[in-house]
Amino acid sequence: MNEQAQIPRATAKRLPIYYRYLTFLEDAGTNRISSAELAEATKFDAATIRRDFSYFGALGKRGYGYDVKALLSFFAKVLDQNSLINVALIGVGNLGHALLNFNFHQSSNMRIAAAFDINEHRGKILSGVPIYDMSELEEQIKAQRINIAILTVPQEAAQDITDRLVKAGVKGIMNFTPLRVSVPKGVRVQNVDLTNELQTLVYFIQNYASITTGK
Ligand code: ATP
């Protein structure tokens, strides 16, 4: 059965945040959690959380809350079944920030699930996406089974980060830096050079204006 059809997109996008926080609770040995506590931690309101969980047929009991282990194993299954494509974003500068806000809303099954930076916004959640320190890159990429990454760091950092991403198992890189990064066979790089694109357009307009306008 395809459960994705029944889960609203906004709910699906909150799932990794729930999942992450519940993993954290499980690691800390916490067995149950109320929607109010979850609301406090995730900054989603408790009613939203209860509604989200009800889509999953979950699982809360009055005066008891939710069983952390049960929720976790359920979410792991849902995340898998829905085959959501989780993408990592490296570098939360101007461009990275814009992409976080954009977050591929037209697509129901692709989204930025984790972002990384050396200093900006670390430890925060921006546009529903947790921002991790670069020291957590490999661990998070493996844990969230991410195999696609978007690179919006300064070009000096691009190759080193690419190497780390590849080692962590990333198979596709959308490279917004001007550097042409090297990758081993089996890894695909998609280069997106916005400045270059705009310059090309300007060049055509200046040199071929009469052709393109047909005058
Ligand atoms: P943009 O190029 O997206 O407009 P910007 O001008 O705000 O960004 P940049 O200097 O290009 O800033 O850096 C982009 C982001 O990458 C910043 O948030 C910066 O902290 C981060 N960054 C820089 N070096 C690294 C690194 N080695 N690893 C991870 N993030 C980095």
From TrEMBL:
NAD(+) binds at residues 91-96. SUPFAM superfamilies: NAD(P)-binding Rossmann-fold domains (SSF51735), Winged helix' DNA-binding domain (SSF46785). InterPro entries: CoA-bd (IPR003781), NAD(P)-bd_dom_sf (IPR036291), Rex_bacilli-type (IPR058203), Rex_DNA-bd_C_dom (IPR009718), Tscrpt_rep_Rex (IPR022876), WH-like_DNA-bd_sf (IPR036388), WH_DNA-bd_sf (IPR036390). It comes from the Bacteria. Belongs to the transcriptional regulatory Rex family. NCBIfam families: PRK05472.1-3 (NF003989), PRK05472.1-5 (NF003991), PRK05472.2-3 (NF003994), PRK05472.2-4 (NF003995), PRK05472.2-5 (NF003996). Modulates transcription in response to changes in cellular NADH/NAD(+) redox state. This is Redox-sensing transcriptional repressor Rex.
